[in-house]
Write a structure and sequence with these properties.
47% of the residues lie in helices and 15% in strands. It is globular and about 55 Å long. It has 210 residues and is an alpha/beta fold. A five-stranded parallel sheet has the order 2-3-1-4-8, sandwiched between helices. Strands 6-5-7 form a three-stranded antiparallel sheet. The chain has nine helices and eight strands. It catalyses: AMP + ATP = 2 ADP. Pathway: Purine metabolism; AMP biosynthesis via salvage pathway; AMP from ADP: step 1/1. Keywords: ATP-binding, Cytoplasm, Kinase, Metal-binding, Nucleotide biosynthesis, Nucleotide-binding, Transferase, Zinc. Catalyzes the reversible transfer of the terminal phosphate group between ATP and AMP. Plays an important role in cellular energy homeostasis and in adenine nucleotide metabolism.
Length: 210
């Protein structure tokens, strides 16, 4: 089964991708990971991506698409895959169609902006050992201190409310139109993200198997 996972930053796509892969025994393909792999292995497309990244520029669509195309040709994709983080825009989705890649279902994990801001802005990370906490769901015993090593807990720049809101705005502008694109093809299913990750996983697997 060939799947695409959609969802705003912080909606929990990565977690659900892992659940799907474990259940269906297919690989999760995250654009960030495959670009890093292409850089490491020095492929033609990887070197092209490096030339942009070295200048601090965004990797253009044609290079990202080339890297995805190379990845989908690998043997572990013959029984299917989960695309997580690609496509991000309508032109990328159109390029995927032109490549002749048949997508069976597109699953959106839907979580409201307010919940995402609360979820992400509540995260704290130990600056010494990297253990994660959450001010609502996984509080440290002593406020501001890591239970594991006693290090100071900090909020990453990515998790600051203003940064989260800016990323959500970009998602709604650039990526959300994909819902209509795939809905018109009869491939879109929407899963409401639950407070309990296991509940979201149950709904996601049911949507895929339906």
């Amino acid at each position: 089964m060939n799947l695409i996972l959609l969802g705003a930053p912080g909606a929990g796509k990565g977690t659900q991708a892992e659940v799907i892969c474990s259940k269906l025994h297919i690989p999760a393909i995250s654009t960030g990971n495959i670009i890093r792999e292409a850089l490491k292995s020095g492929t033609k497309m990887g070197l092209a991506a490096k030339s942009y990244m070295d200048k601090g520029d965004l990797v253009p669509d044609e290079v990202v698409i080339g890297i995805v195309k190379d990845r989908l040709k690998q043997p572990d994709c013959k029984n299917g895959f989960v695309l997580d983080g690609f496509p991000r825009t309508i032109p990328q989705a159109e390029a995927l169609d032109k490549m002749g890649v048949q997508i069976d279902k597109v699953v959106e994990i839907h979580v409201s902006d307010d919940r995402i801001v609360a979820r992400m802005s509540g995260r704290r990370v130990c600056e010494d050992c990297g253990v994660s906490y959450h001010m609502l769901y996984k509080k440290p015993t002593v406020e501001g201190k890591c239970d594991a090593c006693g290090g100071t807990l900090v909020q990453r720049a990515d998790d600051h409310p203003d940064t989260v809101k800016a990323r959500l705005k970009e998602y709604h502008t650039k990526t959300e139109p994909l819902k209509d694109y795939y809905d018109k093809q009869g491939k879109l299913v929407i899963v409401e993200g639950q407070e309990d990750v296991a509940d979201t996983s149950r709904l996601t697997l049911a949507a895929i198997e339906a």
